[in-house]
């Protein structure tokens, strides 16, 4: 018989079939499940929880921006530079030129120093309290009476 099937064109092209019914899979978990939250989102939630806890006692914190950055910059414009010995866990940028004051928490240095979620939440709260105290010119114990308790 001379019925030859022409050879298939080589090269990339759309697949004609879904092999064994295993096509593109959906997400592992729906977006409303905590499993779907990234580590950065979970960390930002910890910072927000800490800020909300302090805002009940200090309503003026509503005028301060709280930010989460991955790591501190090596060089800053007019900001305090850090040494090789101590990587900062947070920082403060005072209000100036019509900009609001900012408190920054650095995610990676905090994560590296903690093992679990509870320990991380405690350290985040300590960092936020320390930075707010510096910004307001108070002691951390004044900002949060439970500061330093384990």
What brief labels describe this structure?
150 residues, alpha+beta, 3 strands
Summarize the structure.
The protein has 150 residues and is an alpha+beta fold. The protein has helices at 39-55, 107-112, 117-136, 140-143; strands at residues 65-69, 90-93, 102-106.
End-to-end Cα distance, whole Å, is: 86 Å
Low-pLDDT sequence parts: none
Main-sheet strand order equals 1-3-2
Q: Assign a percent range to the helix content.
A: 25-40%
The SS-based structural class is: alpha+beta
**Rg result:** 25 Å
β-strand amount: 5-15%
| Arithmetic mean pLDDT | 83
Based on CA inertia axes, which overall geometry fits? elongated
- Count of alpha and pi helical runs: 4
Number of DSSP strand runs: 3
What is the ordering of alpha helices and beta strands? HEEEHHH
- Could you describe the largest sheet, including whether it forms a barrel? 3 strands, mixed
Report what the structure shows.
The protein is an alpha+beta fold. It has four helices and three strands. The chain has a three-stranded mixed β-sheet with strand order 1-3-2. Strand 2 and strand 3 (102-106) form a beta hairpin. Helix 1 packs across helix 3 (117-136). It is elongated. The mean pLDDT is 83.
